[in-house]
Every structure is written in C-alpha cells, then in structure tokens.
Amino acid sequence: MHKVVERGTKSLINSRIKRKSFLNKIVHNVDDLIPHFQNGMYIGWSGFAGTSYPKVVPIALADHVEKNNLQGKLKMNLFVGASTGPETEDRWAMLDMIDKRYPHQNGHHIRNGINQGRIRFSDEHLAIFANELIGGYYTMDKPHGSKRTLDVAIIEATEITEDGCIVPGASVEDEVSNAIANHIVGFFKNEIEQGRLPKNLLPLQSGIGSIANAVVGGLSRGPFDNISVWTEVVQDTFLDFFDNGKLKFASATSLRFSPAGFNRLFNNWETYQNKLVLRNQSISNSAELVRRLGVIAMNTPVEFDIYGHVNSTCTFGSKMLNGLGGSGEFLRNSKLSIVHAPSTRPTKSDPHGISSVIPFASHIDHPEHDIDILVTEQGLADIRGLAPYERAKVIIEKCAHPIYKPILMEYLETSHSLGIKKGMGHEPHQLDKAFKFYTNLFEKGTMRIDKW
C-alpha cells in the first residue's frame, strides 16, 4: 500500500494517518508510482456518482501517457463503483487508456469509445457488481497469472485509522464544507429567534456529497432537538444524528452508507429500525407532500448566478454532469429552499479557476423564483423578498470568493447603470459580456478575467 501526499503537509499527514507503521510508505512524488502500472492491468478505483474517486494518481498517469505519446500503449481494465469525474476516466478514454470498463460510466469520450468499439463495456446492476467482481466474473481472462481480482486499487481517503482502516473521501468534512454548515446552523438559530421556524425546525431534506454530509453533521451538533428528516438519501452522518438523540425520525428512498456505516446500521439494528423508513421515490419526491410537510430543502448545485438562478446539471451550459435528481421537486415546493456550494473550484492552472457565483448561469434548472437561501464558505445570502438588483448585491457580497467579488460587482453596477438608462433596469445584463467567465476559462484556464 502506498499513499501519495503533497510536500509541505507532513504535520497534516501525521494527524490523518493514525497507524504510524504506514508513515514510511508515503510517496511524496506521484511520478514514483508510474512504474507500478503496466499495460493490461486490472485497476480498481473508489468512487460512486462523482464522489470519493481518486484524482492525483489517475491524472498523473494521464499526464504520463500524453507526455510520452503512449496513447493506446498503456491501456487498463477499469472497475469503479459507478461514475467518477471527467478529469479522470473521461480523460483516460480520450487518451485511449481504457480497454474494459465496468459497471457504469458518465462521460463524452468514454461513451464515444464504447460506441466506436474501442472500449469494452458491460452495463451491470450496481447492487450485484461487487459480489460478481469478487467472484471473478469479470477477470477470468487476466493475463498476469495472479489470482487476485485486481492488480492495483486506487482509493481516495482522508484518514487511516489506528487499525489500518480507510476513511473514504466523501465521508469526511473539510474546512469549506464545515464553514457552509456553520452558516446554515447560524441561519436556523436566527430563524428560530425571529419566530419563523419552530425549535425543532421543519422536516429536513439534504442532498448527497461532502457538503451535505457536513451540513447534517453540523445540525447534529447544533442546539436543535426532535428533528425529523424527509429526504431521498440517508448518508453516514445521519447515524451520528440518531445516536446523539437529536434526530427523531427519517424518511428516505435509499441508504448511501459507507461499508462502515452499513455495519453500524446492522450491528445496532434494534436501535435504528423504528427510526427509519424507506419509501417509494414517487412518495419521497412528491411535490404535494414536500409542500404540505413544509420541508427545508438543501442541495448542492454546479453554480448559481448573481440573480439567484441555479444550474444543477450542465457544466458550461452543455455538458451533462449527473442529472437533476430530486432537487427540482424539493427546491420548488419546499418551505425553505437552500443551495450550497464552494465559492470556487480548481482548474489545472488556477486553484480558484472556476467561480460558483457567475454573472449569468449557462444553464438554469431552478429559477430565481424557487430559491430562498444561497450559501458558500464565504457566507449566506438570504434573498427572500428582495428585488433582483438587491439580490445580486447580497449574493456577491455574501457568497462570492474575494478574488471574484470586485469582478462581479463591476459587472452588476455597469449592467444596472446601462439598464436604467435604456429603461431595462429590472434584472439587467450585458449580453455581449454575460458569458465571459466561460470563454476566458476555455481560452486561459481560469474565470479570472483581466477586464470586462
């Protein structure tokens, strides 16, 4: 087992790797791992539905292939729980690095490779895939003579426990997620003080991913009791919520626990069995029930614009990410609709290359009329009852990253001034400049524009 870390993070790594005998296996330069990968290997990745998948090693392998013109010469058989991210498996497909792929994928290049016959793909039921993989159904033609199902497993982890167990990426909160959670907890406290919410809040709906996990974790540590949940998916942090006695009951359609979470559930089944019910999605996502129950909906989008329009599905307005899921039913019909996202995301050349707060959303799944609260680690924007210009100022001030705040404010003020002069000042845009963040990203690898 090798662990890859960046330089300058020794104290952080020491605190994350609790099994000290593993510390001498740390690899500081990812390129040192490249020789361990050979053509025809059977490779397993962690990950499911775009979360907890490895990035550093797969990207380094792709860089190695591209730099050395090894397209088609270093091809592997790839096994992942479900889909990952475009910067990993889809780039591998583009570089002709995938021979076989199981059991689910999501990406333009990999779809093309499958349909053109370059990638052998078997579409399998996710529930039975793990057992069939362990049983050797997909690896009977392994050429290396090894009886192991996989040659190499690459797992994204944020901690190694004292007994050597791996804590997966999506199960752990980070500083950004915790900051978002703290803003939401603070907002709920104020709503209770103002008499707009009861002390036990209202039924909660939460999406999936690290931010959603952190929000639920923050609520479980907050001053709220007798909480109820009406949602689609229950994750690991809900178990903590149950265990501290603050979560009274949860209704969902599916359980998205880690292996440790499922063990915890089954080992304490008598504790949880009367606190949890699974319903058909036509009931869990029913617009009528969501509205009647007064659900508080919390979901993570791709991006949102300065007027409060939210994109949950299509990056750059065109490329499908994962899909709408249940966010539409919940955000439109909830008592309180909350969207939360990191203020920026990295690109290859800029750690803050993509702003989640943009002038004009490239694709709109949830219009301004359906959104009440927008949150990033920078702050929380309460846009209830505000006119578009007021909304925009609050969203920029509270949610935008400091790098992008002056850029967005300049766009807003110029648009507002021009709009008023033309008698078009209600929700003004400069259509010749509204999408400049995207064009600059394509051309220069960052949304940080030099000037409008």
Protein traits:
Glutaconate Coenzyme A-transferase, alpha/beta, 2 domains, 452 residues, 5-stranded parallel sheet, 16 helices, 5-stranded mixed sheet
What does this structure look like?
This protein is α/β, with parallel strands linked by helices. The protein folds into two domains: 3-169, Glutaconate Coenzyme A-transferase (3-Layer(aba) Sandwich), CATH 3.40.1080; 175-444, Glutaconate Coenzyme A-transferase, CATH 3.40.1080.10. A five-stranded parallel β-sheet has the order 6-5-4-3-7, with helices on one face. Helix 12 crosses helix 13. The mean pLDDT is 88.
- The SS-based structural class is alpha/beta
CATH top level assignment of the largest domain: Alpha Beta
Strand order of the largest sheet: 6-5-4-3-7
Mean pLDDT reading:
88
Reported CATH architecture of the largest domain: 3-Layer(aba) Sandwich
**End-to-end Cα distance:** 50 Å
Query: CATH fold name of the largest domain, please?
Result: Glutaconate Coenzyme A-transferase
In a nutshell, what does this entry contain?
This protein has 452 residues and is of the alpha/beta class. Helix content is 33%, strand content 18%. The chain has 16 helices and 26 strands.
Task: Indicate the topology.
Blueprint (H helix, E strand, L loop, with lengths): L2 E2 L5 H7 L9 E2 L14 E4 L10 H12 L8 E5 L5 H9 L3 E5 L5 H8 L4 E2 L4 H9 L17 E3 L2 E4 L5 E3 L6 H19 L10 E3 L3 H11 L6 E4 L2 E2 L2 H7 L3 E6 L1 E2 L3 H9 L1 H4 L3 E3 L2 H4 L2 H7 L2 E4 L3 E3 L4 E2 L2 E2 L3 E2 L6 H7 L2 E5 L3 E2 L8 E2 L1 E2 L14 E4 L2 E4 L5 H12 L5 H17 L14 H9 L8
Parallel strand pairs: 1-2, 3-4, 3-7, 4-5, 5-6, 10-16, 11-13, 12-14, 13-15, 16-21, 17-24, 21-25
Antiparallel strand pairs: 8-9, 17-18, 19-20, 22-23, 25-26
Enzyme class: hydrolase
Catalytic activity: acetyl-CoA + H2O = acetate + CoA + H(+)
Organism: Dictyostelium purpureum (Slime mold)
